[in-house]
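Page 42, continued from yesterday. The earlier attempt failed because a stray header line got pasted into the input along with the sequence. Redoing it now with the clean sequence only.
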Amino acid sequence: MASVYHVTLFISLLITTSTLLNSPCSASASPRKLALVKQQPLILKYHNGQLLKGNITVSLIWYGKFSPTQRSIIVDFLQSLNSPTTPPPSAASWWQTTSSYKTGPSTLVVANQVLDQDYSLGKSLATSQIISLASGTNKLSSVNVVLTAADVAVEGFCMSRCGTHASVRGKFAYAWVGNSASQCPGQCAWPFHQPPYGPQTAPLVAPNGDVGVDGMVINLAAVLAGTVTNPFDGGYFQGPATAPLEAVTACTGIFGSGSYPGYAGAVLVDRSTGGSYNANGVRGRKFLLPAMWDPKSSTCKTLV
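This time it went through. Structure tokens are written below.
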């Protein structure tokens, strides 16, 4: 039976912030001193299980209709993770943090791409159908990634998850990420869309001009980092194995320095497009990538 990992939604954090900002304060209350509390280091425990290291083959299953431009954004992101010549801050340096986890670096290599533009299983998919789509290659050194189009509903999508990674009986790892552009952009494409709850700050401009696909890049980054550092339940995570905080989901909502719930932090802006980003990629691409937990510092590491 597959164990599923969720890309944490930002809603609980935003609700908490809104509650704090709107809590009444009695004018007659006696003054209180603010005590500075030292923040404890964030620790993801290693559970002595197998990690995915070395050359990892990534196969993409495009389910539904994606334009050639949309597909190129995703493929360029994956290729950017292993591009040593990209100027800093780079997507490759972001991915390099995974090499600080046990047993060294992992290199993702894009292999097969399958186009299922005719919705062979319909437009409403259960988790079991995602597993079926991902079961083409069952190798420990590979990850099959199912990417669903904006008009495809997936079990739990928007309600509890934006993407997942999981394993089937410990034999192979797979991942899924959905395009949330028309279903829940405020949840799964934040900060490129206003959230449904909490502070309503202006959204950032998507760096590649596609809110849904630029949001998919964020969630794909999260599930891939979780896949290589905790593929079979025994890797790095905090909390219960059934609902773990992993390499990126432990750092939810952080993209740049100074971030707090509802605010992504200080990021870079492309002068020509107005797009917000923190990572350079191949072919001039720019991406906004989430913070990743760094084992060396026990902190959520950002590129900017």
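Notes: The first strand starts at residue 3 and ends at 6.
Reminder to self: strip header lines before submitting.
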